[in-house]
Amino acid sequence: MTQRPLENLRIVEFAGLGxxxxxGQMLADLGADVIVIDRPxxxxxxxxxxxxxxxxxxxxxxxxxxxxxxxxLDLVAWAHGLIEGFRPGVMExxxxxxxxxxxxxxxxxxxxxxxxxxxxxxxxMAGHDLNYIGLTGALAAMGPANAPPPPPLNLLGDFGxxxxxxxxxxxxxxxxxxxxxxxxxxxxxxxxxxSALMGMIHSWHAxxxxxxxxxxxxxxxxxxxxxxxxxxxxxxxxxxALEPQFHAALLAALDIDxxxxxxxxxxxxxxxxxxxxxxxxxxxxxDAWMAVxxxxxxxxxxxxxxxxxxxxxxxxxxxxxxDRDGLRHPRPAPVFGAAAAVPPPEIPEDGAHSAExxxxxxxxDADIAALxxxxxxxxxxxxxx
Length: 385
Fold this sequence. Notes:
37% of the residues lie in helices and 15% in strands. By secondary structure, it is of the alpha/beta class.
């Protein structure tokens, strides 16, 4: 049976975009009770139904009203952790900054998700994933040498350097709070997180194994044995035969004579080796090549798009996705216990749990009715669409 180890963790999440909500999703997937404070009106780029909202509860509060802020502070008092993704100073102006929140809950772990961080000359500036990874040295290391660096989706910055680090910080802060009773503030900056992820590159540079030129290194497409190749059908395969034994298996599967191919790490032969690999891979379809590499240690896998991936047998064996209501849900990760199919939880409508949450906080029926009537709180029928 799939385990949910965070079932006793309580999180209040202030609605936002990208890395903050995904951090909340990871915690909810692992069992945490995550309550999202939604806004009376959604922003223009928000999604009414998004995977990042699954398994959470929603209450709509007007944080510009005194009564709405009072309910928010009641939720802060209930929670073990908080997630907010506003620019520095916004929560303080709302009267919901760390000092105020620790006043009602000294053990609270206050998680702050930003691109640039809470301090520094860029702290108040707008930005997005591409800007943040550009500042860290990561973006400059990606892509071909003769073209601008390509945007690598927003997986590296928002979710790798942002959400993952925020989750680690929240859980570490909670462990400290359990031991000492003292809360903390987690300053999760995407630039800090991506910079931390670049540690191996700095290590390789110090060892003389990495250069700042794109396309000149083992992991950036500069090596013929670590890159993608097009096949006869127009699809691609990924080749990652780094170790010598895996490289030997690759040559054997491709029926290439090692004595004429040249040494694996001889850069003077790499251009020639790339051409040879490209010509061979172009001779068969992607699926035909995968039949050749099945069961080998050549480190070759198909390049699937986000639509095809669900049908692959390895992903099926891991129950990697499940469709619900027209939306494909990736399974929660990491897996605790045996891999098994996990029915995706519902995605809440904004304000779907407003009355339920207010009652949980001790508000009586008259108080709940007054909050809804004044607009300090909204239910789903009167909330944002």
